[in-house]
Amino acid sequence: MASGCIGGQETSETKITTVELSGDFLKDAVAIGKVLEENGINEVKFSAWGSGDPNSVMRVHGIVEAARRINKIWEENGVNVKIIITDKHYAAAFQDAYQEYLSKQPLGQAGDFFVNSYAFLPTLADEGYILDITEYANAYKSVIEDFYPSLIEASKFDGKLYGLPQDTEARPLYIRRDVAAKIGFNLEGIEEKVKNGEFTWSDVYQWAKKAKGNGVAEWGLIHRKGSAHPDLIQFIFAFGGKLYNEESKKLVVDVPAIYKWFYVEWKFAQDGLLPEDIMSWDWAKQIHPTIVEGRTLFDIGGTWYWTEWQTKDYYGKEGTPRPIKPDEVQKWFAYTLFPAGEKGLQPVTLSQPFVWMINSKAGQQNPKYEELEEIYHELAFLMIIKASDPDINAIHSVISAHLPVRKAAAKLISDEKWLNDLKSLNLDLDQEVKDNLKDIVATTVHPINAKFLADVSYMLEYTKFAPAHPKYPALADIFKEALDKVLRGEMTPEEGVDYIIQKVNADPELAENVEVIGEIPKDWQFP
Amino acid sequence: MKGEKLRSLSFFLSPMIAMVGIFYLIPLVFTVYISFTKMRNWNTEKYLSEIVGLYNYQRLFHMFQHDPMIRAILLTTVVFVGITLLINVFGGLLLALGTFFINESSASSIRLLWLLPRMSPIAVYSLVWYYFFHGSDIGTLNSILLKLGVVSEPIPWGQITPWGVWSIIIFVNGLVGVSFGMIVFTSALNQIPRELVIAARVDGASAWQISRKILIPMLKWHFLYVLTWQFLSLLTTYPHLFLLVEWDLVNRDYGTTLALYVFNTAFGRGEQDQGLAAAAAVLLSIIGIMGGYVTLKVLQFERMIHEPRGDVE
């Protein structure tokens, strides 16, 4: 409410400071723009923070493009307001970005938009650092319904929606075709065998042993490292274990499944098929070169490896390291789900969706924030709706080999004409965005890469998620420490499991949030 | 007269008192306060007024009793602080004395060389040693030894517990810290009248005799200062250790000191527990205060601050 006295006559003027979202994007955007204009706001400043691998810059540029599209709507509808993205902050390590956000949010210095792993969403939501968008999303049901439901679930905390999925991925088991051919390992129909649970980790072990024994590969298996990358907990799911109890809302230390996981890795390491010190290997100088140069038969990786190998200089067999070409990736690598632990169980994959989150203080750097807070938040919501446009999502997927989060985006990826337009950047995109994507697009937009994405999409039907629990990162850290000791032979698999239980019980808060179930199986055999 | 003295004392001491108050006392009081709250994830609004009494201390002691890693952390703290302190203090003294007896231009170059680690950005400096000590054949040291045929397999230096790990963290931090003692001792040596040294030289004293009989006794208070300062500094240092542990160069258990434990608890995990970290920091401060006090007592610091004899009121 604003009131004043003009020319000696008292006037009273009520200004609207909120808009009821209707679900009609054009109508809502115009209505919000008009409210801003009526309140004397002609410029809205927002900042966008994102993080991840070098090809995932759309996590920030998606917001830049969303701003341009809303600005265009306003311009066409005579609304004299403009959104300006002031800070485009992109960090390579998503954990670092999270820590920076955590420390700067209370100071009001964190980005208005924050793209990061859903794993951090529970803590951010619990602390009140991100916006609850449940009500806004109710108005946009048609858009929300186009997202894959499991990903929308991953963006919730305590039943409320705190973000929109930005991307996801699967973690295939890569198999070197050239190495396999040398040992008579027929990869024909391997995907089906893995799907049916016929090809299990025992088979992986046998072939790995053969590859090493015949001297055709230095290693049988290479995998990722670190606890924040939850690749290895796929073993828990592959052995039929669980990590979270829905009823008690507690994390679970599933002793039999963890023991089997540790035993498998221990066996691989003891037999020289997996480096004992893999957890301290260097990503750029050891892990990726070993895989792309064919010095291993198997690799547990992520879908994003596919384009990362095409943009980074990992292949050094010919002297100066270079990226590998799309046809080389296709020629050298087969990919399947993460096999079942043993016969009778299911294969799995694991996803760690990234989510567009909105700062609960979004828009605070703008004038009249206290009066117009709701409007700024509604506008921020419309921005992430726009940033989820199918083409923006599809561009991100193709150039970074992440899986699309919307059905409409998945459809676009299989459209050859659209891919050609993307290749030549003949799309309606902000010039700044085009400039930033130019090099990545030139390297990664290729029918082979689009086919790869289409091929691995089915894996989402088998996907599992790490628990969205504030204490999970602490537990994952303990898993990593224990596994490292087991791989190095400092502990037996049994001792590794005991170590986890001891560490959990040592912290009363963690112990309160974790259930230990089951016992170490007796007489269990591997392979 | 007394009032005037107090006024002039207050005038001259107030900047120092203000500085100590703002930068040392208030943070200390604040740390103690936070240790009694449930402060986490930087959420001051939500937790700063939530007093939980001794909860964090009880939790900490429970962890100390039951965490299989804590023994390694405490042992590492003792070994790391003890040995690095000796290297920093005696290494600094040795460098200062060594450069005292050679010509100034060579001495300056040597001092500059030893200052380089301190001047390099921490990440760059740590990265150099990361690649140097890397436990595979990409490590410079392993690569040299393999080429020379000294070893047939790369040695995982940072994973040889405990001494392999300790050697690396002590070496890396020792190289950084030694320059501090060198500067203090060099500056002190430059204040010693040259006549004393020249006279001793004329009497046929060797460099060792001059050092032992003249220079070192005159450096006693500087020695005490460097020792105490470096002790407190090493007790609370963590940046280089953090990177070496974070990059998995060294074993986590034996590469973590209490200071790094405090840092990791406050800022390192998915849930950042500043209340618990503050309790650990208070514990660290108590150890620091006690250690500093013992050092000063043993080395009779009070003798240095005695009023000089012969002053007339």
Automatic annotation (TrEMBL), chain B:
Domain ABC transmembrane type-1: 74-295
Alphabetical list of InterPro entries matching this protein: MetI-like (IPR000515), MetI-like_sf (IPR035906), UgpAE/MalFG_permease (IPR050809)
Chain segments annotated as transmembrane: 12-36, 72-100, 112-132, 163-185, 222-245, 276-296
Subcellular location: Cell membrane
Keyword Cell membrane tagged: yes
Membrane-topology descriptor: Multi-pass membrane protein
GO cellular component, one term: plasma membrane
Major subcellular location class: membrane
CDD domains from the UniProt entry: TM_PBP2
Any Pfam family the entry gives: BPD_transp_1
GO biological process terms on file: transmembrane transport
Record keywords: Cell membrane, Membrane, Transmembrane, Transmembrane helix, Transport
Domain of life: Archaea
Keyword Transport set for record: yes
Stored SUPFAM superfamilies: MetI-like (SSF161098)
Assigned protein family: Belongs to the binding-protein-dependent transport system permease family.
Stated name of the protein: Sugar ABC transporter permease
Organism: Thermococcus argininiproducens
UniProt lineage: Archaea, Methanobacteriati, Methanobacteriota, Thermococci, Thermococcales
